[in-house]
Design a protein that fits this description.
With 261 residues, this protein is an alpha/beta fold. It has nine helices and ten strands.
Amino acid sequence: MKRIILVALLALLCLNACTRESVTLTVMAAASLTEAFEELAKQFEAQNPGVSVSFNFAGSQQLAQQLAEGAPADVFASANQKQMTAAVDSGRVEENSIESFAQNRLVVIYPQGNPAGLEVLEDLAGPGLKLVLAAKEVPVGQYSLDFLEKAGQVPLFGPSFPQSVLKNVVSYEENVRSVLNKVALGEADAGIVYSSDVSGEAASKVGQLNIPDELNVIASYPIAVIKDSQHTTQAQAFVALVLSPTGQEILAKHGFLPAAR
């Protein structure tokens, strides 16, 4: 009898394990979060057996548009509040569920060897410079324009500085990683990206000019569970990991600043 009971219990345990559905969590995240979130996903999957994380990395404006068009997702992490607000307006995110989880700042980058001889920010206005920016619809693209506008109000640069710089733009990219890649490949003399982009392997491929605090723009990153997520529990757990000390340590490792509290 004991043997029969034991066999029955083992069968029940097998049934529970074998019928447990695997879950794929879909996370839409700003392109600048790629390496940090990929590392977070490994941590999350290790803590949650049976759950895998699938990412859609792109410009935040592209992701917000996809959400508005009904794309299935479980979590949205944006590089600015504007695109998160768009997700709220399209009915995909509850406004009171949004959490800020990181900040970022701008830097000017150039290819290894610095072919244009950039030494100071004023050199961005030099004739013949090939500059790559993200499109203004992309968070980092708008932040870049904000930086130029601030600089134009400082005597050191002068009011003509923004327009002189913009004359040097050879392409506007759909996300920050495209800017980074073009500069790293030497297809442009300079670009403007987030400081977190110049970490890891990228740090060996590009040099950088810092933008002082008074001219810089601090980007704030919000995250939220998608309202119609089919995996709400797991989505909330992923957001909790991002906000946790462990998640914050991983983000800091990849060059992100802590969120303002």
